[in-house]
Amino acid sequence: MPLDTGQDQDRLAALQILEGASPAERLQALRDAVPGRIVFTTSFGIEDQALTHIIFSEKLKIDVVTLDTGRLFPSTYQVWAETEDKYARRIRAFYPNQDDVAAMVADAGINGFYHSKEARLSCCHVRKVEPLGRALAGAEAWVTGLRADQSGNRAAIDFASWDDERQLIKIAPLFDWTRERVADFCTEHAVPINELHAKGFLSIGCAPCTRALQPGEPERAGRWWWETEDAKECGLHVGADGKLVRRKAA
Ligand code: SF4
Prior knowledge:
By secondary structure, this protein is of the alpha/beta class. Helix content is about 35%, strand content about 10%.
């Protein structure tokens, strides 16, 4: 689907020239370019923590929200609390619909995601994708912590793209940063990070679907490790065709 208005296309084109700027400059430029609601969804991974630090420290008018799936690690809740304490800000949580969770668990079992791809996608839909829709309601832009050099099919990620499915501008301010650069930034600024990162968990999602990496494994190998590499997304960052959303302005 093409961009629906010339205004959105102009905003997206203007943002493409910011590829050499700092993440703070990129977020400020986004704020300046988009008059409406901007939402940043954090899952409290190290990239998200770096962006939360910038948004809160720079007092940018960007809503910081999270999707509490109900299956997160205790240490994720810990870093969530530490972050709210450090910056004296609340992070709004969106929760799954409880009737949908009950029906899914009754049908597939509490850990049905291990037994079939359909059950895994259903769980991710109920616990993440549907709440994400509510979190982004009315937003004109969506900020994420995606990086292009994460494994899986994230190499296709751009700084700014148009999300056809959700009809908004999608921004990845750290798209061209390495993990080491993000880690250095967090150390330099004393940003709270999940203690699991130091234990080999580089990409942290729900507890039953995340394991530590073995030496030499790519960064996202610990997510849904029982599935094939091309299936390692939860549906938050894929379009209706199953591909990562990455279209640039025409
Ligand atoms: Fe369910 Fe696992 Fe997806 Fe979390 S990552 S929503 S537990 S399937």
